[in-house]
Amino acid sequence: MATALAAVASGALVGASASGDAVVVVRGTDLPAGNRAQLTMVGCDAVFDRAAESLQPMIGVNQGTGGLGKRSLAFDPAGGNAVGVVGYVESMATTSVASMAVRAESGTTGVAYAGFQAPADTGTDLMWIGRAEVSAPASTGWTTVPVTGLGYVWTKYDMSTREQVATVGSSGVPAFVRAMGGDGYGFYSVAFGCDGNPVSLDGWQIGRPGASTTYDFEGYRSTTTIDGPSAPVTAGDRVTLTGTVADDRGTPIAGARAVLQAKQPDGTWDTVQVDQGAHVRATVRVRQTTTYRWKVFSTPMTEGSTSDPFTVTVADPAEPTDPATPTDGPTDPGDEPSPPTGEPTEQPSAPASSDAPVEPAETPSVEPTPPADPPESEPASEQPAATTSEPAAAGASEDAAG
């Protein structure tokens, strides 16, 4: 924890907005190490009192009104623990904004923690951590839960042993900071799922008016490639076109649904074949020079993408030497597969029983109940592996609240 606070003091932790409001788009659960915001799993009764639980975060398309962006994190906790985000700050006295957007169709209970190192404890492993209960109502829409104005019951911890050193009554953060001798570094954390109900989380915001940072959890981006014959082919030849589909981390997307499209004279693209997987292929009969591309539709977890165009060139036919020599007859149309009509669209994703987050240091998991992805999205629910972290006194995922 002392290391984390020192990192905040030196400006080594990134992610805060010094001036002006900022939005940070987080792909999946990829909050980089050293960022001021980290995913965390905490105990509901006491910050370090966590039950053994491996919580896998899920990513899904936002449902209901008031969501931020297109996707969010979802969790289906067992109960007793809570999952959420911890954010580290240089000044607890001036941090007046800390909130999380929550969606829980059955409602959810949770806990907020505020960590503060008093000036007299600077350079030690001692830290005050306040606890307050929070909740979100049963709703199909999103509810913003602010935590800076709550009354916290404060306990002093030795962060090296996680043992309690002292306990005082309930107090708001500003009054407690003044009583402890002045401003200092610290953190806010808010987490949900104490009752075991599925929950979706998004839009973690921390800072002060005019200088806050909002974290928008979105799906992974995808990249699609295409390859085929490098030399001209003869009219009527069958050629094989291949492609690869990976997310923006370079991880192959095994469940990708890719459509091979051919460009028409009017500039539109017609569907030729469909394949599924991270490595796709299609064999087509080419009668004239044609430009192709692979198009991958989005899923609740991954955004769609389109490969660069690839042109298969048909060589000019050789001049016949004997006009009387009959030419080959037309290819039997039965040899050519009938292409599907129209362009596939993604079906709506059925709402999952839960929306979920991750463990900042190891792996939480859960999947939000995504609504239907727009026209070009598919209802495949995928679960990203992620890590859960604990609120460190200002940087270490296990040092602070988790």
Describe the structure.
The protein is mainly beta. It has two domains: 2-220 and 350-356, no CATH class; 222-319 and 330-335, Immunoglobulin-like. Helix content is 4%, strand content 39%. It has two helices and 23 strands. The protein has helices at residues 2-10, 173-179; strands at 22-27, 37-43, 58-61, 71-75, 81-89, 97-103, 108-116, 126-136, 143-146, 151-158, 163-172, 186-192, 199-208, 211-218, 222-224, 237-247, 257-263, 269-276, 279-286, 290-296, 305-306, 310-312, 355-356. The protein has a seven-stranded antiparallel sheet with strand order 2-5-12-7-8-10-11. It is elongated, with a radius of gyration of 27 Å. Mean pLDDT is 80; it is low at 1-13 and 319-402. InterPro entries: Ig-like_fold (IPR013783). Residues 300-402 are annotated as: Disordered. Residues 300-310 have a biased composition (Polar residues). Residues 315-332, 378-402 have a biased composition (Low complexity).
